[in-house]
Amino acid sequence: MRRLLWVGCLSYLLIGLAHVVMGSVLEELLRHFGRDYSDGGQLIFAQFFGFLIGVLTTPWWAGRIGRRGTILLALGALTLGEIVYSFLPAWEWMLAAAPVAGFGFGMVEAAIGSLIIGFFHENKAVAMSRLEVFFGIGAFVMPAAGSLLIAMGIWKISFPILAGVSFAVLLLWWFTSFGAMNNVLTKQNEEAGAVTEHGTQAAISPYRYGSRGLPLLLLMVVFFVLYVGIEMSLVNFLPSILIEHSGMSSALGTLGVTFFWGAMVAGRLIAGNLAERMGYGRYLLIHGIGSLLVLALIPFFSGVAVSYLLIFGLGLLMAGIFAIGLIFTNHLLPGTAERTTSLLIAAGGLGGALLPLLTGEVMNSYRSEITLWTMVLFMAAMMSMLVVSILYSKRIANVPSRHGT
Predict the structure, then answer these.
(1) Would you say residue 371 has pLDDT above 90?
(2) Buried-state track 293-309, b at ≥16 Cβ within 10 A, e below 16
(3) What domain count does the chain have?
(4) Which of 24, 92, 104, 293 is deepest in the core (most CB within 10 A)?
(5) Which residues contact 172 (CB under 8 A, 6 or more apart)?
(6) What is the CATH number of the domain that holds 288?
(7) Residue 198: is its pLDDT beyond 70?
(8) What is the pTM of this model?
(9) For residue 400, what are the domain limits?
(10) Which of 139, 156, 189 is at the close of a domain?
(11) Stretch 36-54: mean pLDDT
(12) Which pLDDT value is given to residue 353?
């Protein structure tokens, strides 16, 4: 299992890089093709569309070609997409490659996440947090690497480098033996094969949540739409907010994102152990409410040092919410790891695409303080979904009480 986790971590490092590589070199890419930001938006949306398809179809592929086959297919698609990017062909070919690359890294994220949640019987919060640490490292390193490559005038090699890393991870999945997990990885994942953390057959079919499970799933879908939307809004607009609200220079404003991602990586190192000790629901409540309070404090302070401190604290508090939220929901809906994980990651992807659009409109029309308060309202709505979910989960008889709150 340890070998599986480490290969999974390398895979999450890869998709962390893949998620942000396009944004890291977008300015140079558009200049190379003589395109504007509208065209760049089309390219990113095409990649996001592929991401959604990859995430949502992961259970279908796992049921037909097995989990290892699904991961190999996903890595092959990602490698192919990055290879096409590497040649910088006609813009139409770039648009055609974008959904292929998105399909690949979306499916890798869903397939490996559901595998860890479904088959790590102990300390799954620690395992998922470790995956998220490597994702965060990838998302943290890529913009810095992209900036360095741009400064050196060799930004074009970012795509072939990523293609090479993707192919290397593909070879790892292809040739590495995972011992007893080999059968799990190659077996087609039909409903009867779903296993809960107690080693018994699933109480709920992967494709049927029932009248009790469906409301909980819908509440958590909204929770993930809002959470990832808030996170992506912060990542995209935090520099502009800091420049306007605190009067920082462009360089100092951008450094705020570095503080946020650095805190996210640090927080994920301890999130799993904390969640295992506190219980998944209690962890989400405490860290979610803490995030809401810190975010609500930012509009009241304009000093550079205080702003950085609040941003770092916000990153620490938000760090484990995504991974622990996945585990919390799957814990309440046993035997549905593939489907539930895919749906929640897809919901997050949708929020990450749509909420920044709304945030951008607010930023264009109003002051930065209004933008911050809009995000506070989003987070308050997110926490209301979590509170209702926890209260509702008390009515599900098969949930162990030590993880329910």
Answers:
(1) no
(2) ebbbebbeeeebeebbe
(3) 2
(4) 104
(5) 7, 10
(6) 1.20.1250.20
(7) no
(8) 0.80
(9) 210-404
(10) 189
(11) 86
(12) 80
